[in-house]
Specification:
Number of helices: 13
CATH architecture: Orthogonal Bundle
Number of domains: 1
Low-confidence stretches: none
Distance between the termini: 47 Å
Radius of gyration: 23 Å
Shape: globular
CATH superfamily: MetI-like
Number of strands: 0
Helix content: over 70%
Structural class: mainly alpha
């Protein structure tokens, strides 16, 4: 067997899975998006752009998604980076495993249960009641964008912490010592050495969180109370309730296009930052 044949043989399982689980379903969705809704629900084969022309009707869902997904990703990054830095650089090695397990403990519980916990905390008998006791009255937290944002940060924080932790944990400590020996202050060492070299972890964490948030359904449904809904909620409504598969497919295709454009710009930005990181490594 030739080397090329062995390579194709090794790629066959992953390629088959990729074709069956991604390419074919996306092709079906794309075909459905040009169809029409059947009288009893579903889709009737056709070739029309009517569904795409109706996309502005779901503008609120796209606006909420494209606002809270980046804000949630950035907020998770701001909270996760100091935590990951503390675990990787400041904590003794014998405590790292224990603290990392504590970070991942929330993943041992269903996201549904964790979301209901936030419903209680943000509801009338939770934080608003405490605020009433100290004289701050009329505060409403549940069924607001703030509630959805809190649920997003809490639910996806571990996915941001771990890639950054791995990147920082692999950082050559001699670089930090060399920077200190050369007279650089701690903040300057962080900005010119630690931060640039941790960009791969930041990029991976942001990518994981952002992609998952773009398709989020449960957190907006529970903490938004139907007042703050994402594209994922719109898709559930279109496919399962109104059974307008053609329009739902058009919304799904539009979401994929938005994600592809956003990720393309993001990867270009990361590429430029990676070039700067290489310059730092050379120096």
């Amino acid at each position: 067997m030739t080397q090329q044949a062995r390579n194709w043989l090794l790629l066959a399982p992953a390629g088959t899975l990729f074709l069956v689980m991604l390419i074919i379903p996306l092709t079906v969705v794309l075909i459905f998006s040009f169809g029409e809704r059947a009288p009893s629900g579903g889709v009737v084969p056709a070739f029309t752009f009517e569904q795409y022309a109706n996309l502005p009707a779901r503008w609120t869902a796209f606006k909420n998604t494209m606002t809270l997904a980046p804000v949630g990703t950035l907020s998770a990054l701001i909270i996760a980076y100091p935590l990951a830095y503390f675990l990787a650089v400041k904590v003794d090695s014998k405590w790292k495993t224990i603290l990392l397990v504590m970070v991942i403990v929330p993943f041992w519980t269903s996201i549904l249960i964790r979301s209901y916990a936030w419903i209680f905390l943000l509801g009338g008998r939770g934080i608003p009641m405490v605020l009433d006791w100290i004289g701050i009255e009329g505060v409403r937290l549940i069924n607001t964008p703030f509630a959805v944002l809190m649920g997003i940060i809490y639910g996806y924080l571990p996915l941001m912490v771990f890639p950054i932790f791995v990147s920082l944990d692999r950082l050559d400590k001699q670089l930090l010592e060399a920077s200190s020996d050369l007279g650089a202050k701690p903040w300057r060492t962080f900005l010119q050495v630690t931060l640039p070299l941790s960009i791969p972890g930041i990029a991976t964490g942001c990518m994981l969180v952002f992609i998952l948030l773009m398709g989020e359904y449960l957190i907006p449904a529970l903490l938004g109370g139907g007042k703050v809904f994402f594209v994922g909620n719109a898709l559930v409504d279109l496919f399962l309730q109104s059974r307008n598969w053609a329009y739902g497919s058009a919304v799904a295709v539009a979401l994929i296009v938005v994600m592809l454009i956003t990720i393309t710009f993001y990867m270009r930005l990361i590429g430029r930052l990676g070039t700067s990181r290489d310059d730092v490594s050379i120096m």
